[in-house]
Amino acid sequence: MSSFQRAREALGLRLRELRHDAHLTGRQLAELQGWHPSKVSKVEGGKQTPSEADIEAWSMACARPELAAELVASLRSLEGQYLEFRRMFSVGQRTAQEELAEIEAATDLTRNFESVFVPGLLQTPEYARYRFAERLEDTGAPDDVDDAVAARMNRQQVIYRTGKRFHFVVTEAVLRYLLCPPEVMAGQLDRLVSLSTLTTIRFGVIPFEVQYTVAPVHGFYVYDERMVRVENLTAVLKLTQPSEIAAYRKIFDQFAEVARYGAEARAIITRVLADLAANTE
Question: Which residues have C-beta within 8 Å of that of residue 100, sequence separation ≥ 6?
Answer without folding.
Answer: 120, 155
